[in-house]
Amino acid sequence: MDVVTDTALPPQLDAVRDAESAAAASGVVVRELTELADLEQVLRLYVRVWGRSDNPPMTLELLRALTKAGNYVGGAFVPDGRLVGACVGFFHAPADDAMHSHIAAVDPAMTGRSVGFAVKLHQRAWALQRNVSDVAWTFDPLVSRNAHFNLVKLAARPVEYLPNFYGPMVDLINGADDTDRLLVRWNLVSPAVERACSAGASGTAEPVPPGAVTAVGMGSDGSPVPGRMGADVSLVAVPDDISALRTSDPDLAHRWRTTVRDALSELLADGARITSFDRSAGYVVRRTP
């Protein structure tokens, strides 16, 4: 973590404290990466996670250029020096006062250790120290664990649905499915985010409101079931494990893609907003006046 001077604002100091606490709880050290040897470890991690050695998600040359230009590359290390998590972000246009967090991954062997949470809190502290107030990123709306992590654990808020955003990305994570994404904004100093990132925070989902109506449910056979649109509060379910479904039943996985796409796109286009994610019910979508 970068050294914070005496002139740092309280949110910056709090963010550093929270990031250090999260890293300690995960048993890792998270730091900014600029040296070639560290960046090579980032590249190798991404190749392992995405399974794309012939077309890696990033290149060493690009990582080097991004860090030289002052952008963010952070990594989490276990005591033996192995990199087990990494995140790369670059700045938006100057007037936007934001950073785009483009790609992040955690070694599958570290699942359940909250390494990803520690890396994101390091990124938050790093951004606040540079007077950046927002971080944006995209994620696959069908991946329930990521939806819970982003919307509940981090308190980020979806702002746009992006159909087939990247085009074909045939790899271990995306399979041959369309690459729909939800774009989220993470206001680093909002009360909700400050609570989510504070030491000991567990990330509590918003309770499903009474009277919420199912816009997309799940049938007894695991298939998507369109429900009723137009309610004040709608619920949009997603499969429990879309990654496994893409392997076992690609056609069903694609039906989930198109059904969730249609529902969320219609709701958001009509002025509703996604406010939370429930592990059982899915996305909580509210209409606003």
TrEMBL record:
The keyword Transmembrane helix does not apply. Residues 28-174 form the N-acetyltransferase domain. GO terms for molecular function: acyltransferase activity, transferring groups other than amino-acyl groups. Coiled coil: none annotated. SUPFAM superfamilies: Acyl-CoA N-acyltransferases (Nat). Keywords: Transferase. The keyword Lyase does not apply. Transmembrane segments: none annotated. This is GNAT family N-acetyltransferase. It comes from Aeromicrobium endophyticum. The lineage of its organism: Bacteria, Bacillati, Actinomycetota, Actinomycetes, Propionibacteriales.
